[in-house]
Amino acid sequence: MRARREALVAIGVEAGAAEPLHRQVYGELRGAILGGRLKPGARLPSSRALADELGVSRNTVLSAFEQLAGEGYIETRRGSGSYVPSVLPEELLSFRGGVLRPKAKTPKPVSSKRGLALAESAYVRDLGPGGAFSVGLPDCREFPFALWARILGKGWRHPSPALFSGSEPGGHMPLRAAIADYVRGVRGMRLLAEQVIVVAGIRPAVELAARVLLDPGDGAWVEEPGFPGIRAALIAADVVPLSVPVDAEGIAIPGPAATPAGRPVRLACVTPSHQYPLGAVMSLARRLDLLAWAAAAGAWIIEDDYDSEFRYAGRPLAALQSLDEQGRVIYAGNFSKVMFQSLRLGYLVVPEHLVETFVKVRGGIEDLPSSVVQPAVAEFIASGHFAAHIRRMRKRYAARQAMLLAAAERYLGGLLELAPDPTGLHLVAYLTPELARRMSDLTAVERARAANVRALPLSRYYAGPKRRQGLLLGYAAAADSEVRPAVQRLAAALRAE
Fold first, then answer.
1. pLDDT above 70 coverage of the chain, percent
2. How far apart are CA 10 and CA 1, in angstroms?
3. Other Cβ atoms closer than 10 A to 339
4. 389-495 architecture in CATH?
5. What is the pLDDT of residue 313?
6. Torsion angle, CA of 165/168/169/170, rounded to 10 degrees?
7. Burial tier of 31 (Cβ tally within 10 Å: 0-12, 13-18, 19+)
8. Are residues 323 and 297 in contact, defined by beta-carbon separation less than 8 angstroms?
9. Model-level pTM greater than 0.85?
10. Alpha helices in 77-214 (DSSP H)
11. Architecture of the domain delimited by 114-125+144-386
């Protein structure tokens, strides 16, 4: 009897092993089938007989049989028993001798050219908890969340039905009106509330504008170095980004020789108030040149005004849009740098004659920004809390930048070169020639991370050749007490051999 059972199926299990008994039985039988010891069409022992043979309960064997049947390794015939199928699933046929054998080589599917370009331009955001020296994050510890909670609660005691359906493709009208009032006052802009289109951030804003204004294959100038998210948004809209270097006056309009033959350039994406990441402020001459080019070429300008609220010397500069007499500037602002990152709320200001088109296209896109917070943001702005928060944080960030510069002067000499910047939430720390001979900015970032200091490499913002090596050090999200110790750790990490 023993020999007959072994001839049917020679398997074994180990009591007390970490793997449950039913998984052991399943694995042993599966291996016998795939290894060819149990041939197609072979009848398996009954569950009772196999349980007796292995010294386990019948329920253990039944559980193994059930899983094998569910995966196609065996089939059960009423009144007859369980059998190995005559035709196994295709992926099982390549398995012999306990190992999966590769099938005939076939080309692996690859992404589209656009997919590859998007992957190449992908910007991996620093999604850490903030601190020294996370880039692009405000200090959420200073945000009035108790006040914010009261405003949220007030708005939802008697909510508008439109908030439940997200039926306002241009955005919550009171929010659009509040934004219009705000930018008229602080940015010198001329607009109606209807010209404001609420979006989920700068990248969806750029993609929306590109889809409305450009045709597939059109070219768009982007700053070099610049924010990779802009480049990715253009590619997603079937627009070809063309890098234009920036200098101390911002982007310079390329001559005809620099424009690709046969590819119309119909858009320029710029950060004139505070070039990202280098910090240059576009001169008035450059602004006028850019506007003249757009008018002559029938082109458009996207003005990304991402952090102009935080200017520490004098009033914020007037927006490029305020100089536009031809209706060629699309203005983009956001709340993430002022309030908190996860808000994911921004806005476009579009020329009046394009409002209807933008709203229609915006309504056809499913990723509308959440309507839940829009009434609260409207109230936050209209009641003066937004402006008050900006004034408070402007003083805080100015003092924090001074702390960073003082600590850098004391500890980072010979390693990094920093200069004050009258605007923004970060500083660029260029590698000195001495440090650059020892390491790249990518290596410097790795060393910084090992010392619990967050930074981003300047080279990551170049699409072409890396002209300068440096670190982006965000000071806004760092507590005052963190700044000096973080600079000391960074210095020690960069000096180590």
1. 85
2. 13
3. 22
4. Alpha-Beta Complex (3.90)
5. 80
6. -150
7. middle
8. no
9. no
10. 90-93, 113-121, 145-155, 162-165, 173-187, 202-213
11. 3-Layer(aba) Sandwich (3.40)
